[in-house]
Design a protein that fits this description.
The chain is built from five helices and five strands. By secondary structure, the chain is an alpha/beta fold. It has one domain: Glutaredoxin.
């Protein structure tokens, strides 16, 4: 799976989600539905920011078609935007973002020190009592 794609956003399903997340350093996921007004308003903003960040996968999950995937992530409000870097969810929040806020989020995800994040996760796992 390469980093180039014909469309600037890609649709994810339960079958493609894990490979997409594990095969790309940064993945943004927009959980949406066709009946959702704010989702339709956010879609062109998401598309515009995706065009200026071709090295990042901007994905969409139709919560109507992929209810199992939406349920697995506890999506209860849409649109919900999730940012995943190196397999770690760094951001997950409901609500449509304006273009500048989405661009800032993309930069913040790029700026995260993932060595620090992975070290923190390892510390938390080590501190948990064995079952």
């Amino acid at each position: 799976m390469g980093y180039t794609r014909a469309m600037t956003t890609t649709n994810l399903t339960e079958a493609t989600f894990a490979d997409t997340v594990s095969g790309n350093p940064i993945v943004l996921v927009d959980f949406w539905a066709s009946w959702c007004g704010p989702c339709r308003t956010f879609a062109p903003v998401y598309e515009t920011v995706s065009e200026t960040n071709p090295d990042i996968v901007f994905a969409k999950v139709d919560t109507e078609a992929e209810q199992g995937l939406a349920g697995a992530f506890g999506i209860s409000s849409i649109p919900t935007l999730m940012a995943i870097r190196d397999g770690v969810v760094l951001y997950s929040q409901a609500g449509a973002l304006p273009e500048a806020a989405l661009a800032n989020l993309v930069q913040a995800v790029r700026d995260v020190d993932m060595d620090e994040v992975h070290a923190s996760i390892a510390e938390q796992k080590a501190a948990q009592p064995a079952e």
